[in-house]
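Teaching note: in complex prediction, the entire set of molecules is handled at once rather than each chain in isolation. The prompt given to students was simply: 'Predict the structure of this complex.' The entities are:
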Amino acid sequence: MAEPILQIKGISKEFSKVRVLNNIRVDIERGEIFGIIGENGAGKSTLIKIISGIYVPTEGELYFEDKKITDFNPQTARELGINLIPQEFNLINELNVFENIFLGKEYQKSILLDKKKMIKKAEDLLSMLQKEIKPTDKIQDLSVAKKQMIEIAKALAYESKLLIMDEPTTVLTGSEIELLFKLMNRLKKKGVTIIYISHKLKEVREICDRVMVLRDGEQIEIEDTQNIDEHKMATSMVGRELSQVFPEKNQPSQETVLKVENLSVRGLLDDISFDLKKGEILGFAGLVGAGRTELAETLIGIRKKESGKIFIHGKEVHIKNPTDAVKHNLAYLSEDRQGTGIITSFDMTGNITLNSLRDYCKVLINHKKERETTKKYVESFNIKAASLKTKLEFFSGGNQQKVSLAKSLDTQPEIFIVDEPTRGIDVNAKREIYHFLKQLASNGIACIFISSELEEILGMCTRVVVMREGHITGILDEDEMTEKEIMLYATGLKGVA
Ligand SMILES: Nc1ncnc2c1ncn2[C@@H]1O[C@H](COP(=O)(O)OP(=O)(O)OP(=O)(O)O)[C@@H](O)[C@H]1O
Ligand SMILES: [Mg+2]
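The expected output is the structure of the full assembly:
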């Protein structure tokens, strides 16, 4: 029998009398990779925040290496060897990579900082994760995937006995996830214990030894991953059988809504041409760095195009900023939820109606109408929140994402660009979002669907544009669309790159 490193004994947590975790009890063994799954708001992040000393439990006890934890704070946890890679980034944009990695644990040489040593150590850490990041890069210039790698490197800079990862792969794609899993297996061999939270059930099955299912703060079951498949995991999370995940596809009309001709942005996009039909959900696939987000940002006027033309209903348009985009009935759901998606110090209504506020104004803001709209989205996306007035900073990660989606939808766009809309979202809510997008398409809305999950591109789209390093390498029709074929274009083995 392996020895437990962490014993969780009847842990419960309440926020202002609302119970979000109830009587969690489990022994986590030294050197295992222990998965935690559950719907958005199930209590996963809350549990690991207790373990890493960020929250104090309302009830129950924790024992780490047979010693009872009496003092819940992050510093104490770190001294014990417990480190957390949080769900939401915690980086300082103005500082560079190595400064962020060593923040609060700087190497010193007498009274001065030992920059050289920190840069060297940062290089070593990064070489295990993502070779393209330089220790002296500024955080604000990095993509979300790279920011995620910095968060991981930050935690690795400490010697950990227990490493906790809260959805580390949501923003990563194939090869990066592979690198991370290799690293996790290496750490495991060295005896490091890992707690791993994810909504990607396939990955949970692949990397974890055991998995715990949480539902509404209750511990539902703990299973060896050998004995539980993805379907069972999903059913256990939701508490009932899930009906079909993907809706039937909508057949788009022949009418072109958006036409992009030879669009280029220096260093980012090169000669992009495609068209988008009314009622179409057009997939955009590619690896990280393929330029899909940059393309979306150029279409809605965040980035300046260098050359090329954009037509909406056959008329050339000049979109210079996001306000112009809204005027042309273009909406964009950003992949960077924390950076540009939502304002966490506002409540739900404040966020959802942020871009559509003029629809609620006739001299004064119509708060009743605003609240009704909010309630509508809460229902259709099953958004879990204490109240309509709760600030978004207290929402679980997935529920923040749902609000972000509601916000971009509320502008009633004609062209809707969604960038990784289901990132960090549980299986059930994903299904809701797919059906919602299909509904939009049936109503004639044209949709650009950027996703790194090929499964959802194949499940939702009738055509897919594949990009690589700022170029389009192929546009595939439904009969040519397979995971393998898309990957061949995405990696440049097929098509012109
Ligand atoms: N600081 C807080 N104050 C008030 N309520 C909170 C706070 N933190 C979390 N909650 C609530 O506790 C519940 C559980 O949230 P938690 O973040 O643990 O969910 P989760 O399982 O991590 O979900 P997700 O998959 O969306 O990240 C949610 O209803 C959330 O709104
Ligand atoms: Mg969470």
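Point out the following to students. The domain at 256-490 is CATH 3.40.50.300 (Rossmann fold). The mean pLDDT is 89.
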